[in-house]
Specification:
This protein has 290 residues and is an alpha+beta fold. It has five helices and seven strands.
Amino acid sequence: MGDNVPILDNNAPLLGNNIPILENNASLLENNTTILGNNAPILWNNVPVFYEVSVLFLKKINKVLRTVSDNIVLINHLKQNNMGNSKVSINFASSKYTDEALVTKTNNILDRVDGSPTFQSAQQIIQELRVANTNYINALAKVEGGSKEDTAIKNNCRKTVETLLKKLAGAVQTISDGDEAIILSSGMDVNKKPGTVGKLAKPENFTVKPGDNKGSALMMCDAIEYADYYEFEHTVLPVTPTSIWLKDTSKKRKLQKEGLESGKEYAFRITGVATDPSRVYSDIITSYVL
């Protein structure tokens, strides 16, 4: 202990010099304690503000999540209802359109798509269709009272128009990306969606004429909406409750029946067929077969 006395004596001035520093730091600590004490009410008053900000933030997050959820529901709804999945009808056959009806349909389509910005990429096909339709109209005008050659030319012109209409339908399908509104704006039709079709309408303008060959008869009626095919029936006269009606089917609305007995009188009728099992027949027409 005696040996350490000189060391303690030597360090005494150092300890003495540090006392003011310790006293100064004590004052700083005391001052900071006062500042913290003064700020405590401010911090406490801001707690509700922090709480409200947190609540608003959570509400915004919840709103975003609800929006995402609603969009998912909407997308699923659109998928279930095949929105954007519409298909352009490519049926331009004579079973659906008479010669005159096809001219009217084609003119309507040309009026809608020719020069339209929406169908700009299909303008070459449109111009080809316009030329073909003009040729078809001119050929059609020569059929009445014309020769078989005139009829053949008209039929060839119609085939060209039908081919170009189908080509244009493909372009409309691509441009529309299945959007029904865009398809209809072109004048084209949309394929009917699968479903149960009720009872079909009664066939109208049913006619029976001598066929091209001996013992034949040509039956024809107007196109029946939603008909998948047609049933042509005939029986020998007189018609009784026990008469047996012989049936022929065709996708087209006209049929030439061969193999009938020349000089015999027959009864003819027609009906359209779809999903409904019932049949609505035309009026019966009787005619002798040549």
